[in-house]
Amino acid sequence: MGKIELLEKDIVSLYDKLQFGVYIVDAEGTILYVNDYFVKLVGKSKQKLVGANFLEHKNTYTSSLLEQVVKTGQMCSAFQDVNFFDTSYRQLVTEIPVFGEDGGVKYIIAMIERVEDHAKRLEDASRNEIHLSYFHRTSDSTRPNVSIIAESPQMQELLKLIEIVAPVYSSVLIEGESGTGKELIVQLIHEKSKRGDKPLVAINCASLPEPLLEAELFGYEKGAFTGAREQGKKGLLTEAEGGTLFLDEINSMPLSIQGKLLRVLETKKLRPLGSTKEIEVNFRVVCATNVKLKSLCERGDFREDLYYRLNVVPIEIPPLRNRREDIIPLVRFYLAQYETIYNKLITLSSQAFDQLYNYSWPGNIRELKNLIERIVVMNYSGTVQKIPEGILSEEHEIMPQVVIPRMNNLDIHSEILSNEFNLSNYLDSKEEEVLRWCTEHFDTMSEIAEAMKIDRTSVGRKLKKYGLSMNKNN
Q1: What residues have CB less than 8 Å from 198, skipping those under 6 apart?
Q2: Where are the chain's structural domains?
Q3: CA pseudo-torsion sign 27, 33, 34, 35
Q4: I need a labelling partner for 68 at 20 to 30 A (CA). Which of 122, 187, 264, 326 fits?
Q5: 268, 259 Cβ separation under 8 angstroms
């Protein structure tokens, strides 16, 4: 038996594997075949379904496609409210005609899916798009291992800056609130640099007391101090040879060590504790801080000469509340990640998404990541209708200024299935709708920028894009 014959033999069993309903009827409406999913959907056995006539149950549908397909010979799709064999649900149905030798409709193949199942499939597809995109980026050995979600204009500009900065050897100073992802930016800079195949050595300057921090950075010789290793220890500045040295929370570095670090950066030489010999070193330094170093310099808590030596290329990471376009993609990304880790399937309702979108995220991405893990861990498989009380800090909840467009109602489903639907045009229309409302209710572009949590320049650019202007009557 050939492969084609085997395939024909297995067609019925293949239909039974599908996760949507399939049935076949003749032109008179008699059911000739139903798959397992359809049987489960209506709650009746195949024996009772096969041989029944759909036309005898026309009153069970808000609309019937069968007669229309037979008459026109055209494929047709529609939403239907169904009350069939004591089972009620709303479904999306597509019926496809199969023609006989005489050119008339001989059979009709129908594919159906409950609207709630279809909506969940769209939600899963959107989530998986982000997950698979991340997997592609991390599994491709020719591309960086670090994935940065950057839907917002601010983060897209930041990534463009990294493309320029990464290949050079200049020092980089990264400033941003705690939890904004400074370490990821450092990893991306390192991996995109010419030193990407060399070590990336990191140390948190706030994690060690002054004597230990100095020993870790510069290393020491045998007997350099009480408790020192008998064989001595190579310092992190030496271990970063040829690569990148990442000094996190550089603002916590004691003044006495700041002077020694400055000398190393200027001379490219260091002297381990207890040693009389200098060692030549070659590394790139990238620093991060969650406070403004310039303000520390003004108070005398940070050396101004070191500040200028480190601040050759400044990078500022915006807090999550100022890059709101990234919130929902980040939620979906971490949701997919923790679903895989904990082997669960969790769906967030539109209300839950709105709660997360309209939260100010004082802890930034770190807080978002931990919150999503908590949601996945604390819920069984199913839909989270609302973020439980106590998870989001009440003092940081904000009133929804902008309702994010989400395709989760029947009208949108119909629009998606039409040939005219275009995602870019749809999102543009929603953005224009929001901006038009803002121009009618706010007096200045600064107020719009504050309400929408974007910068004033972006507001101006978007207003110009849609031909909008501030309401002069306000």
Answers
A1: 241, 242, 243, 244
A2: 10-114, 153-317, 331-405, 422-465
A3: negative
A4: 122
A5: no
Q: What separation in angstroms does the CA of 13 have from each of 9, 115, 266, 418?
A: 8, 25, 73, 31
**What is the rounded distance in angstroms from the CA atom of residue 112 to the CA atom of residue 25?**
14
Whether the per-residue pLDDT at 227 is higher than 60: the answer is no
**Residue-by-residue DSSP string for 353-409:** HHHHHTB--TTHHHHHHHHHHHHHHHS-SEEE-SPPTTTS-GGGB---SSPPP---S
Q: What is the pLDDT of residue 403?
A: 43
Least confident of 21-25, 38-42, 356-360, 365-369: 38-42
Q: What DSSP letter does each residue of 411-450 carry, written as one string?
A: HHHHHHHSTT--HHHHHHHHHHHHHHHHHHH-SSHHHHHH
Note the CATH architecture for domain 331-405.
Answer: Orthogonal Bundle (1.10)
CA 235, distance to chain mean position in Å, is 38
Predicted TM-score (pTM) above 0.90? no
Q: What is the pLDDT of residues 303-352, one digit of tens each?
A: 999 999 999 999 999 999 999 889 998 998 888 888 888 877 788 888 88
Fold of 10-114: Beta-Lactamase (3.30.450)
Q: Superfamily assignment of 153-317 in CATH? A: P-loop containing nucleotide triphosphate hydrolases (3.40.50.300)
